[in-house]
Structure formats: structure tokens, C-alpha cells
Design goal:
Rossmann fold, four-stranded antiparallel beta sheet, 10 helices
Length: 268
Amino acid sequence: MSDQVIKVEGLRKVFPGHGGAPDVAAVDGVSFELGAGESLAIVGESGSGKTTVARMLMGLERPTSGLVEVCGRRRSTGRPTTRERRRRGREMQLVFQDPYLSLDRSQRIGTIVETAIRLQFAVGRAELRSRTAALLEQVGLQPRHAELFPRQLSGGQRQRVAIARALAAEPSVLVLDEAVAALDVSIQAQILNLLCDIRDSREIAYLFISHDLAVVNQLCERTLVMRRGAVVEEAPTRELLTAPTQDYTRRLIAAVPRPGWVPIRSTA
């Protein structure tokens, strides 16, 4: 794959058992690649290992074994220095499912975004304000929102702030871990449209972690299906949704009929 931004080979994460229970392989031999500007979904039921993959990519979990490369650099498993953490922040950012828990409730929205900019770039006060205003505008927020606290915003607005904060580092990859799962359907559609608009204006790749294939269908070119820590199927999203090869994928598709859904093509 040209302009590769993520390469994962044989990724494995084993959690030790407790009280005499056997060890658990939460992720077992996962491999995939992600190109610049591409959108890849990792889907599966709860406990399939998809979020553990995302956490290992972000350095929040240490892999038991396997290779992780981001923007052409191999990720070490040791504790990164402050300089290395900042470098990684410019490569990849994470948007969580619940923005209220991930945002500092004591800070105003403008301060949250400004802090993210200052962590990565040495800018003067005027440029800092300009960048902050531009980011808030890009995610569909008004200048007045900069003076508000997270508790004063709706769930969709808070997720827009979380996206703006992630974009402040100008990353090559945005990891979205169930980023619309906590929102109602109408707000989900707004955030998905926003993410599509951001891709049109920036060369940014998405790694979209989800259990919802209907949502994935709107955003991702390729989809990787996980079950019990392993990859069971990978294909272009439209192909996977219309002609899945695995029974497990068929069950996932059957479980989430939604507006805008692409039905499985009949094989009769």
C-alpha cells in the first residue's frame, strides 16, 4: 500500500488470568495496513478485541508481541519520553466514545482546544486564537462556544469539541473508538457528515472502531471483522456488506438493520 500510515503485523495481547483462571488472548495475530487518507473500520461484538487493538496503537496498552509502525516509524513497547509522546501526538490522535469523560470539565472549550495546540506548536497569542477559532468553525461550533464549559454543551457538541482537540495536533491518523455510539441517530448522522467533510479538507486517515456496520458503511472504504481477538474477514466495505464470506459477519449484518442499510445480496 502506498503512503502507508499504519502497519500492524501479528499483533497479540495476552492478559494474565486471575485466581487460577487461564490467560486470555484479547488480541491474537491481528495484521492490517492503513493508507494515507483512507478510512478503515474494525468491527465486532463487545469483547472481540477491537478496542484493545486501538489502545495498543495509541500506547495505552503494551502489546505482548507483534509489530506496530506509524508513519514509517516502529513503535517501541517501552515508556516513551515527553518528546516521543508529542511526536506520536502529531502522528495519531484518539477520539473516545464519551467526550464528557475525556474533556476537562473545569476548562472552557476555547482553553481545551488552545491547550492541545500549545502542546504541539510554539505559537503566539494571536495565532493561537486564530487556530482555535478555525478549528471550532471547522467542526461546526460558533465563537460563543469557546466561552462555555463541557457541561453546557449537548452530547453532539461535546463530540465536536473532542474532534477539534484531536485535529489541533494536525495528525496523520484519527482513531475513533465508538465515537458516535453514545449519540442518537440524528446526531450520529451530523457527526458522520462532519467527519466526511474533514476528510475532504485534510489528508487524514481514519481508523474507525465500531460494532455498528450501518455506521461503518457511511464512512469507511474497507472493513476488518474481529471475533474473539482474531480477524475473521477483511474486504472493501460494500463488498463485505453485500457478499460476506463468513457466517459471523452475516450475523453482525443481520443484527443491525438501520436506515440507509445496504442489505445482503441474495445468493438464491
